[in-house]
Amino acid sequence: MIALFRTLIFAPLAILTTLIASVLVLLTAIFPMRVRFAIIRVWYTVVLGLCKTVLGLRYRLLGREHIPSGACVVLAKHESAWETIALQQIFPPVVFVLKKSLLNIPILGWAFIAVRMISIDRKAGRDALRQVAEQGQKRLAEGISVAIFPEGTRTLPGEIRRFKPGGAYLAVSTGAVAVPVAHNAGDFWSKRFAKRAGEIIVSVGPPIDPKGKTAEEVNRLAEAWVSEEMQRIAPYRNH
Fold this sequence. Notes:
It is built from seven helices and seven strands; from the N terminus they run H-H-E-E-H-E-H-E-H-E-H-E-E-H.
């Protein structure tokens, strides 16, 4: 009951904050990207602050020393909307690889375009890999990290899905290191409306240097690390 009450307060505040930030991003689209990322920085700071103060939901970051100083390819688990917010604070500046249909959402989708998120058609097969490589190379060259959810879709806590090769392919084709990320956000921020209070654990793994490796090897190393780390940070799950 308390979780529902807290969420009823949090949800409209988070939506309003996101709407304001999206409009500001659109209004500053003619200015350099750093202006839009400054707005995004304020947005995620406010929303994560609301998570902490209103929801009672905070996070602890492990492996901070593994975060590269330059742009990288982030290969993270995907269990909720929460990590799409938090990863922007952990790996700034960063853009996400997302499905093309999200760009059609009024205001929010337009803001995605303004910050140059990487959009792909999931049904395009190998063409989707090319889309990720082409757009991702440009972002990385600009010093912007690229976050990809290699499982391809949101998973339930404890659910195991094989990693898709798009992120690893981007790392190999550009020479950027791939950084695996494990977390247990789904235990607190599920598909249910009410969000649970507690502490989300986010663990950043050692960067994987793609030099001399195939995309399959990079993908396999990232998947193995995330799988093993999930057993360590969420041993209560039925892995």
